[in-house]
Amino acid sequence: MTITGFNTLRSMKWLARRFYSMRPDQILYSKEVLQAKENANPVVALESTIITHGMPYPANLEMAKTVEQIIRENGAVPATVAIVNGNCHVGLNDSQLEILAQTGTKSHKTSRRDLAVVIARKLTGGTTVSGTMVLAHAAGIKVFVTGGIGGVHREGEHTMDISADLIELGRTPLAVVCAGSKSILDIQRTMEVLETNGVTVTTMGETGVQIPAFYARESGVLSPFNSPTITDVANLVYTNNILGLKSGTLICVPIPHEHAIPSSFINNIIDNALAKAKKLDIKGKDCTPFLLKEIAEATKGLSLKANIELVYHNAKVGSQIAMELAMLSKANLGTVHSRGLINHQSPVQSSILSPICPSSSKKHISSTPIPLAIIGSVAIDYTCTASSSPLSLHTSHTGSITRTVGGVGLNLARSAFNSGSMSVELLTARGKDRDGQWLESEILRKGFGKTSYLISEKHETAKYVAVHDGKGDLVVAVADMAIVEDMAEQVRDFIVPKQPRWIAMDGNLGSKTMTEIVSVAKEINSKVFFEPTSVPKSIRPLQIRNLGVYPNHSIHAVSPNAFELSAMFLSASDTGLFERNDWWEALNSLHLLQDFRNDVELFLSRHKEIAHLGPQGLIQQATHLLLFMPAIFLKLGSLGVLAFRIIPSERNIVSMTTSKILAHGKTSDLVIDYFPAVEQISQDSIVSVTGAGDSFAGSLLHDFSGREDSLFEDLEEMMERAQKAAVRALKSMDAVVSS
């Protein structure tokens, strides 16, 4: 028999040698794991024998998916390890998990010894602790979570039945999180073998804690070391790695009290099961599955429930260890800037900020130009929705609180990316804290494009807390976005190499950062879009130093709501922007005479739903501001959108229609378009208003960035897409929803 030119024996020997120093490129990674590896984000390995041989289908599938979700919820990325048709997988998608779970015991229980055979013969195998350790280490993973490890079997001094797990722990530098060795084993002798192999063993708990015995919290065997905190464990693992020790670290985590089985009760059942196995002459790798089945039957399923719960608990603890370890590693590998910020590779093909690239000569630009770059916030959004309406002040209310990934900058990027296939890159900042780690991992999991992070030791990760009444309307919100206000020093390094067609900035940035953005944008002929974010922050671009006036404007488009527009108008008026000579010259060039005023009145009379905008002064306010930002997309909620634009006369805009006002100037025309709401949404259908405006703006950015001069084209289709994006967001707890 031959396999790809080798006879079976030679092939197995060759594969065995290769596995001893296995290369990462011999492994198939899931997309989620690959992205995490590329960006040095925490990954937690999981074995697959528990799926194939630990419990029946579909309980095994449900358990596997739950464990993976627990790991994600705690900020890490799960990587279930298995061999499928001879291919080594680190990270499985849902369909692969389903296949593995259904295959069950028909697959091969695969330890280090079996790897070459299973791969050479293109079989499917569930990896044991030792088999998983080999592949996880080859993949560069540092933390591995399992239920319990193998060990020295009872009477092992006569049978020499010692699990390969113990030998693997002595030669593979991986942190293994477990609930101790299985209760069916000789725990005292297991500890002796681990000591002989140089394995550091620590148990979560205070001094004097015992090694847990899987189902039971105590085994009667003292732990060599104890770790009172997750941080202590991470320090042990990190130190083991930097010392270059080739041995692993075993972290024992006692099963939670509420799920533990008393040792006296479980030991009697184990003794009976061992006696039965001896009588039936069951040995080797068949012994453990037999004993576990006997114990499950004797405890009427109690042991299986305990097994599942301890795995869930280990997954949580292991994820926290992986997070701490990743933070520890990044803190020692990051590049520290003068302001205490650390550049760090970030989710989905992210990049460390490039060196300053001279903007005066494009021959120095090494990167391929991109359509859209966004500079703004990422944040953890807490949405509090009360059960009743209206809300009373100075008291608490019943309701629900949800935590999601948000931030205006991120929402814009996700919405633009979801609107079609387009390269989007985001510059943002997060804290060097657990919230920041969780946020980064969630963004990685959702995926949208490229992100560059500045990691701050001075500020915490941004947070946004919104309180909604029972109807879903926003009552009040508090935003802590200090971390993203000042990124001026990093703007040039981020923008210039990318040569974006459009640059979007959100209102959380400070005026100093905005000034630098518009300055760099002018140098490389990029257009600038501003999303106001909130009423207080909407005025920030008006504080930009040397703010340009049309046709030398600094900002090309904005998307305020009515309150933000009024705040911007008042700020510009109070600071004397409407008294500048260049503003008056630009206004006079538009020829806004009495005919234009008559057209506005006629226009409003035809659209009764927005007739109130005239008396409120919003048309006048937008027209004044238009000379500083010659495209204003006024969001009117359930009434739709009113678009104001200054367009070069050579674009030959059609004459005024029932939904359009047109004023011809010297060299440019002023155009006002009305776009009614694409869908009327009942109050019962609104889940959250958070993100609707960002989804609208992100969709517009996608269309504007897609091709040159799209800002001057007919807007009907663009507005329909943008409003539909906002509607999807209104009907979901997620701030941005894919079409």
TrEMBL record:
<protein>
    <submittedName>
        <fullName>Pseudouridine-metabolizing bifunctional protein</fullName>
    </submittedName>
</protein>
<keyword id="KW-0464">Manganese</keyword>
<keyword id="KW-0456">Lyase</keyword>
<dbReference type="Pfam" id="PF04227">
    <property type="entry name" value="Indigoidine_A"/>
</dbReference>
<dbReference type="InterPro" id="IPR007342">
    <property type="entry name" value="PsuG"/>
</dbReference>
<keyword id="KW-0378">Hydrolase</keyword>
<dbReference type="GO" id="GO:0016798">
    <property type="term" value="F:hydrolase activity, acting on glycosyl bonds"/>
</dbReference>
<dbReference type="InterPro" id="IPR029056">
    <property type="entry name" value="Ribokinase-like"/>
</dbReference>
<dbReference type="GO" id="GO:0046872">
    <property type="term" value="F:metal ion binding"/>
</dbReference>
<dbReference type="GO" id="GO:0004730">
    <property type="term" value="F:pseudouridylate synthase activity"/>
</dbReference>
<feature type="domain" description="Carbohydrate kinase PfkB">
    <location>
        <begin position="372"/>
        <end position="573"/>
    </location>
</feature>
<keyword id="KW-0479">Metal-binding</keyword>
<dbReference type="InterPro" id="IPR011611">
    <property type="entry name" value="PfkB_dom"/>
</dbReference>
<dbReference type="InterPro" id="IPR022830">
    <property type="entry name" value="Indigdn_synthA-like"/>
</dbReference>
<keyword id="KW-0326">Glycosidase</keyword>
<dbReference type="GO" id="GO:0005737">
    <property type="term" value="C:cytoplasm"/>
</dbReference>
<dbReference type="Pfam" id="PF00294">
    <property type="entry name" value="PfkB"/>
</dbReference>
